[in-house]
Amino acid sequence: MRAAVATFLLLLAGCAGSLNETRTIPAAPDVLTSIGRYRQAYVLAPGDVIEVLVDHMPEVSRTVTVRPDGMVSLPKAGDLRVAGLMPQEAAGLVRRELLRRIIDPEVTITVTNPREEKVFVAGEVGHPGALPLRDVPTAAQALIQAGDIGRSGKLSNVALIRLEPSGYLTAHILQSQARGKAGLLLTLQNVPLQPGDLLIVQETASSQFARVIQDYLNAPLGGLNQVLMPYAQLRVLQEISK
Description:
Blueprint: H1 2-16, E1 30-42, E2 49-54, E3 62-65, E4 71-74, E5 78-81, H2 87-98, E6 107-111, E7 118-123, E8 129-132, H3 139-146, E9 158-163, E10 168-174, H4 180-188, E11 198-201, H5 206-218, H6 220-228, E12 232-236
């Protein structure tokens, strides 16, 4: 037991320097990039409170909550399924229904209680799913919160998928010169997360890991959306970029 503790303390000393010194352990990520361009959009879900404003018609405007079945009830429009739609798409749906009874209505939908920013963990972890970003601001904290690291997945096979401002998805396969689980966690503690980030832990061999990640990048209507929905939706950009 004493030997194990001594070994752990030596590992920390080698990775972190002295207590008076702050040292960053650099990750050496391999970066993969998707072939398509996308944008991330807020998608309505049950529990969202939305303000439906019909211009110059307060008698039709309402503030309503999206029901568990994904529907809302509105005057002159009836029951409409809005879950899974972006607010502007839901506004278009409401407008089309109102056109049956109202001439050229102008409809605006605003979410009054937007969901908090989240990050996502998928793959071989104990509890895959969404985590509040405020609780897990780094990759290490997110993986620890997801639980059971190393039981079936390999902590050496970790990728961070992020939607860049350019519209392209990138996957950083996180690696470190530090050895062992503690060393890699110390490295990942220096990897800050952003809203919508997705961490993937896989059991596959390192040689196969890049191919697994490409499936997430280039087939977002499959693996990626299964993780992100109903929190966020990646939409293909229509314009062609060079």
